[in-house]
Each structure stands twice: as structure tokens, then as C-alpha cells.
Amino acid sequence: MTEAHRWKFFRAGGFEQVLLETGEDLRQLPALDQKLWAALNCPTRGVEFDPKTLALLDRDSDGQIRASDILDAVNWLASLLIDLAPLSEGGDGLKLSDINTVTEAGARVQASVRHLLKTLGKSESDVLTLGDMQDIEQRIAGLEFNGDGVICPAQIADADLRGTLETLQSCLPSVTDISGQAGVNQAGIETFFTDARQRLAWYQAGISDAEIFPLGNLTDTAFPAWQAVSSKIEDYFLRCRMAAYDSRAATPLNRAVEDYIQVAAGGLSEASPAIADFPIALAGADKALPLDGGINPAWSARLDAFRDKVVYPLLGERAALTQSDWQSLSATFLPHARWLDSQPLGCAASVSVARLQAILGGSDEATLRSLLAQDKAVEEEVSSVRSVERLLYLKRDLFLLANNFVSFRNFYTGKGKATFQIGTLYLDSRSCDLCVRVDDINKHTGFANSSGVCLIYCECTRNGGSEKMNIAAAFTAGDSDFLVTGRNGIFYDRQGHDWNATIVRILDHPISIRQAFWSPYKKLSKLISEQLQKFAASKASSVEGKMIKAVVENGKSTVEAGTATPAKPAFDVAKFAGIFAAIGLAIGAIGGIVASIVSGILGLKFWQIPLALAGLMLLISGPSMVLAWFKLKRRNLGPILDACGWAINARMQINIPFGTALTQVASLPQGATSSLSDPFAETRRQWPWWVAGILILLLVLWFARPVI
Fold first, then answer.
1. Which residues pair with 473 in a beta bridge?
2. Contact in structure between 73 and 93 (CB atoms under 8 Å)
């Protein structure tokens, strides 16, 4: 009985994560319950990983890497390699001895590796690297036959055969070779030659029928000439029958004089639609159609062609065409019209019969099929080369990806950057390592807000604004006092490129306990400052208003005719007494509160005073700190990544210690020295401290006085 694989787990982020350390761990991955995976899906965009590897994993090209893609890759590698241990080692080299030649697929891959080494002039080597595969696409595309099942005109030397292939291209849907050139595939050749034979069979059946071709080979030119004037001649004879029915209809049927005046107002031309709209000839009761004169200039050329190609060959020379003659001609061409309507409508319908006869009469079809067979013959070889390329990429990267997908080992152990960490933001004397790429800020904030993390959204630009992207940076240490929209910083991506970063949106959440402790005092200080500023502004405005009013009043004449200066009202002592009393009561109440607090503190023993002050501060800051502590404990990475297109399968906590590690606050280097003397520091006045000291001393003496 086979012993079950012994998995190892480590706890980080508040949940158990599988520890992938060996190739055997990777081989056994299909047996691991997916409920224990950290993620089940990740996008191919916005992650720091080789896009070529992601493309090779994303077999359905939907822009997503799912758990099934990871498992398929593991099973595929297990079928080609003797042991998966080299995957945990990484590296971009593949040894011949690592390939499992017992399986047919493995034998083909090893043969392809040997062939590539020989092609590269490295026959003595037993290691193929990704560097050797750099130009594999160009090499495959440059081969005469590359196994993609497409034949291009450029690879055909014979001019006649190349012309045939170009004819096929002109009437078939476009098919692109891996070299990027347009060509024809097996399905196109089958379709074209099938349609071509049907079209020639249809043509041969018609050409042998005298009713369908009344003029023999001349019918091909006579029929279009008849068809070009058919509707107009029908219109003419109908007008003639209407005139025979009622003579009064003759004049209006031939258009009024006003119509000619309107046409004459503009520039005249035989190609004018207005002139072509007039009857082909003047209608009259039972009148024949003149063939030599009296024809609408817009139709004269077409009628001459009809006369020479249809009337004269079938009816003989004549100056006019009667209605019975016209009906006879129409009946003659009716079988040909029906025959044309029955022609096959395949892709070969746009090719002339003569060209189809030339193509089918030669050996071009057999030659094209032979070329396709030769291309098909190397399909397996080319496919094996592509398998080698895929094997090299997955051998190098799959183990690393698994540790950023099945578990988030790199992120939580700090041994390397996670795939979703795209760089570092420097702003407000801090560096933020948890930065993710965001395509739509509005959409991202809608879900990421539930993470409880303080997120700063920045618009990043470089190269003069030609390159742009949006990021979300997590601030998990320090405070948010100076994080405001519009502030600038620098973002460094994983390639070392620097971007100008500007804050465009903020999701405000608690950052640290320290911030929560000082928050009440900062809010109180801000409130007092704002109120004092408002009070000072109102007083300044009042003084300015009184000064302006005084200047205006002094500029006026003190005595006006017929009026007397009104007497100033007497000072109302009772009115202001109430105001002064209210102010006195307020000051007394505040003073009483302050006195009671001070007296209570001074009534304690000396060693109890610091404890009382600390308790008072905790009483003020405690609720804010407790609330912040609960929120910081609930910070979750999942919603941030889910909003980027991931399918996170666990509750990934960012606790306080880990959050502190994700955001670094500025600090002086170890061993650095700093001069505390600031030559531009503001001069501090000493007298306020003396006054405060004297007041405190008086209070101490007052409360320490003996009670009589």
C-alpha cells in the first residue's frame, strides 16, 4: 500500500498555508484539497511574472490562470521528466538525462532537444537553455515547411503555381501563416476545387444548349447588352400602350416642359441621373422604338450596343424595334437568364470560367496538395520543438508561481516579492511595498474598501506622460495626517524604472495604534485652531467694517438742509449687565472644572500624580485606540486582490506587526550622528514659561495652606 504524502503547513496571515519545498510536493499537488489553496485564479495582467510563461499556462487564452491550469502543467511535466526535483532548484537549463524517454512524448521531446543542440552547434552539450530558444519563433517561421498547415505564395518558386495560389487567396477567407504571411490551408484548397468543378459542370451543361446560348459564344456579350436596357425599354412600351389607351396621357407621359426647365437650370451631362430618368424615347400610341435617332442622350450608347449585339444578329438590320420584336428578344434570352440564376454561388463564382479551366486542366491541384502534405509531415517535429520551449519555461517558473498561488509563501515570509507586488511607492517619508496595479480605480475601490486597509490610489506616469498606469498602495504604518489628494511621490517598479506618482483617491482606514492615540488631541487642537481662526477673522472683519463706516460718515456734511442730527441712545446698563453676568458664569464654571481637576491631582501623593495623568490620557484616547485595534486586527488582503481579478480562497490577514513590515517609516541609519542645533529655529520667548511656573507654584501653595 502506497504511503500518503506527508504535507507540511505553516501558519501566516491567520490561516494555514501549504509549504511547497520539493519537486515531490509539486507532483502531489493534484491530491491536495483545493479548499486549502490560497488562490484559485489569478489574472495574467497586473502581475510581476514572465508573460511568456503565463501565456504557456493560459491554454485557452482567456487572460486567467486557474487552478486547473496549474494542475495540468504539473501533470504534463510529470509525464515528461523522470523527477520533478529540478523544478524546486529553478534555473533555465534542461538536461537530456532529466527527460523521461519511456513515454512516447518524452522520447519525441528528447529527440527535439538533441536536434536543437545539433542545429546550434552544441552537439557535445547535454544541456539546452532558454537562451538557446530566444529566436525559436523566427527559426520556425523561416522554415520552408513549419507544420502549421498553411502554404504561402512566397515559398513557391514556380510563377504559374504561385499565380494559382494567389487566385485561391483572392476568393477564400484569409489564413495567416506563423510567419505572419497570408496563405491557403487544406480546408481552403478543398473548398475551392470542389466549387470550381461544380461551376465548370454548370457551365458545360449550359454552353451545349442552343436555347441557353442562342448566339453561341456571342451570347456572353449580347446578354449583358440586352440586360442593360431591358427595364428602360419595358418602361417605353408601357408608356406607348398607355398613350394608345388614352391620347390625353401622351403629353404627361413624355414629361412636362417644367421638368426640362428644371434640368436645364443646372449643368447638363449625359451621365446626369436627372436626364437618365427621362423616357428612353418619346412615347406615342403603338409607336415603335427608334434605333437610329430620337433617343435620350443618357441611353444612346447602351441602346447602340443593344442594337449591334442583339437586334441585328437576331432580327436583322432595321431602323426601329416594335413591341412584338422586343417580346421575341426577351423570350429568346429568358432561358439564359434562368441558367445564370442557377449558377453555383461558391468561392469560385468570382473567378472566370477560362481561369478555372486553366487551373483544373493543369497539375496545380496535385502540386498544392503535395506541398500541404510536406508541411503536415513536419507538424509533429515542430510541435515537439514547442513542447521543448514550454518545458523550459515551466521548469524554471512553475515552482515559483505555485508558491505565489497555492500558498503566498513569498509574501508572508518576506523571502521575495509576491507576484502581485509590482513595486514600491515612496511618499510622505515612507516606503510602501504592498502596491498592486489597478485598471479601473472606481471599480477597485468599490470592493477593496472592505479590506480595512488604508489604500492610496496614485496615477503614475513616465517618459513625459506617454506611459501611464494606476496603482493602489497600502499604508500600514505611520499616520495619514499629510496624505491628501494631489500630493506627489515616486514609484519604482520591479524593473527599477521610476514613475511620477500623484494621489488621486484615498480609502481612509486606521493605520496604527499610535495614530489612534493622538487622534483625539489632534482633532481637539484642530477644532480649537479653526474656532480661533474664525473668531479672529470675524473680529478683523468687524473692525475693518467699522473703520470704513467711520471714514464714510466723516466725509459727509454734518448738517443737511431741513434735517437735524438724531441724538445717540443712552447706554443701557441693565441690558449689558445680563451679558456680563452670563460670561462670568461661563468663566466660573470652566475655572471650577479646571480647579477641581487640579485640586484632585494635587491632593494625591507625589507618586500617584503620574498615574493619574496617564489614566486621564487613557480615558481620552482609550476608546479611539480600542476601535482602531479591532479594525487593524480585521485588515484583509483578499478584497484588494479580488478587486484586481484574483480569486482569493482564504482570509489573508495583515496584522499589526506584519503591516509594520510592509510600510517602512523614515529613520536615521545605524551609527549616524545628527546636530540638534538649527540655525534657523524660531526664537522661543521665556516669559510664558515663567508665568506658567509662578501660577502653578501659587496653586500648590494655595492648596497646601493649613486649614483653620
1. 435, 456
2. no
CA–CA separation, 233 and 222 (whole Å): 16
In this structure, are residues 313 and 218 in contact, taking their beta carbons and an 8 Å threshold? yes
pLDDT tens-digit series, residues 80-113: 999 999 998 888 899 999 999 998 888 888 888 8
Helix axis angle, 364-377 relative to 379-402, nearest 10°? 40
Distance CA 19, CA 7 (A): 7
Model confidence over 323-344: pLDDT tens digits? Answer: 999 999 999 999 999 998 888 8
Q: What is the pLDDT of residue 120?
A: 78
Nearest to 616 by CA among 630, 600, 631, 629: 600
Q: Please give the single-letter amino acid code of residue 597.
A: I
Stretches where the chain sits below pLDDT 70 are 1-2, 135-146, 515-516, 518-519, 521-526, 528-530, 532, 539, 551, 554-622, 628-630, 682-688, 696-708
| Residue 34 DSSP class | G
Query: Which DSSP category does 454 fall into?
Result: E
Tell me which residue of 444, 426, 424 sits closest to 434, measured CA to CA: 424
Task: Map out the domains of the chain as residue ranges.
Answer: 9-142+379-412, 420-509+635-664
The closest alpha carbon to 640, from 652, 628, 656, belongs to 652
- Residue 236, classified by CB atoms within 10 Å of its CB into exposed (0-12), middle (13-18) or buried (19+), is buried
* Residue linked to cell 437618365: 276
**Per-residue pLDDT at 67:** 95
Max CA-CA distance within the chain?
Answer: 155
Looking at the DSSP assignment, which residues form a beta bridge with residue 320? 290
- Give the pLDDT of residue 525: 66
- Please tell me the distance from the alpha carbon of residue 698 to that of residue 311, in angstroms, as a whole number: 135
Q: Which three cell numbers stand for residue 677?
A: 542645533
Taking the C-alpha atoms of residue 276 and residue 255, their distance in angstroms, rounded to an integer, is 13
Residue 407 and residue 17 in contact, taking contact as beta carbons nearer than 8 Å? yes
Q: 644 is written with which cell numbers?
A: 484586481
Instruction: State how far the Cα of 230 lies from the Cα of 240, in Å rounded to an integer.
Output: 16
Enumerate the H helices of 293-378 as residue ranges.
Answer: 300-306, 312-315, 323-341, 353-361, 364-377
Q: Residue 462 is which amino acid?
A: R
Query: What size, in residues, is the chain?
Result: 708
Q: Return the residue matching grid coordinates 448566339.
A: 215
Q: Which residue type does 21 have?
A: E
Q: What type of residue sits at position 85?
A: A
Residue-wise DSSP of 228-265: HHHHHHHHHHHHHHHHHH-GGGHHHHT--HHHHHHHHT
- β-strands 320-321, 430-432 pairing: unpaired
Chain-centre distance for alpha carbon 57:
20
Q: Is 690 exposed, middle or buried (0-12, 13-18, 19+ CB in 10 A)?
A: exposed
- Cβ neighbours of residue 454 closer than 8 Å, sequence gap 6 or more: 474, 475, 476, 480, 483, 506, 507, 508, 509, 510, 511
Supply φ then ψ for residue 405, to 5 degrees.
Answer: -140, -65
Alpha-carbon span 312 to 310, nearest angstrom? 6
pTM over 0.90? The answer is no
Amino acid, single-letter form, for residue 617: M
